[in-house]
Amino acid sequence: MTAINVATESPALQNEQMRPGQTSPRLALPTVLFLVATIAVPIAITFVYSFLSTADIGTGVKWDFTLSAYRHLFVQDKLDGTTAFDTRYVKVIWNSFVYSAITTVVTLILSLPIAMWIATRAESARNFLVAAVTLPFWISILIRTYGLRQLIDDNGPVGGVFHRLGLDYHIIYTPTATVIGLIYVFLPFMILPIYASAERFDFSLAEAGYDLGAKRMTVFRKIVLPSIRPGIISGIALVFIPALGSFLQSDMLGGGKANMIANVIANQFGQSRNWPFGCALSVLLIGLTVLFVQIIRGISARSGDQVNLV
């Protein structure tokens, strides 16, 4: 009789081989569950609530499915029973886009020189300057916004300068104050990604451009700018998207005179107690954010840049 040996693989070989340094997916399960519970579930609840009706008494919702919340985004019911196109929330959305776009453009203009300058310093100086750029992150955004409000207040240093010059101009509680607050908060978010790209740039290429007779702006436009473009695209995304949903700056500095979409959402859940409409606005904001992310990804893909937004 011939003995037949059947080779059996060990359980470790039967499973997918893990690369060196790779951990078990089970270790990521608690974090995944936490993210699902704190992000996915609230978004799902918000989406469902946007199709419900306002509670008859108090706050909350009534489980009566309807599209009235989305209808009220663009249609206004008059007292005589007629309807008309409602431009109030369209203007709020437009204002949010305008303020965010201005913030993005200004922070980009301010960030390019400082990021390039930091990238050309010695290593010890770079570490100190990057720490100085990130210093605002060490302080609560609420405290920083309060400090800025005291600075641009009519009785503050900036208001005092206007008063001494005989100018009857007020910055506080204006759209200008809102934009200044947004620029103040999001400027580091533009500087850091651009610096990260500029730090990896080989400046000998710029020197070669100068040696070949190219002017300063030509070297910057043809050599430097394409090399740091991934950082610019990342900075635009990191500034525009959070600025679009900002609440604190328009509330504390704009004084309710420069409402953005986040302020209207907060009022719907607070003063108006219209949760379905607040959820509909939230879904609209999420949709606009996803659309902008896809646009950024499409632009970076067409240009061949590797841009990581998260």
Fold topology:
Blueprint: H1 11-14, H2 29-49, E1 53-54, E2 61-62, H3 68-71, E3 75-77, E4 83-85, H4 88-119, H5 123-134, H6 141-152, H7 157-164, H8 175-199, H9 204-211, H10 216-227, H11 229-244, H12 248-252, H13 261-269, H14 275-303
Antiparallel strand pairs: 1-2, 3-4
Strand count: 4
N-to-C span: 65 Å
H/E element string? HHEEHEEHHHHHHHHHHH
Overall spatial form:
globular
Structural class: mainly alpha
CATH class of the domain at 94-303: Mainly Alpha
Compute the average pLDDT: 85
Can you count the helices?
14
**Beta-strand percentage range:** under 5%
Helix content: 55-70%
Q: Give the uncertain stretches in residue-range form.
A: 9-15
* Cross-sheet strand order for the largest sheet: 1-2
What is the CATH homologous superfamily assignment of the domain at 94-303? MetI-like
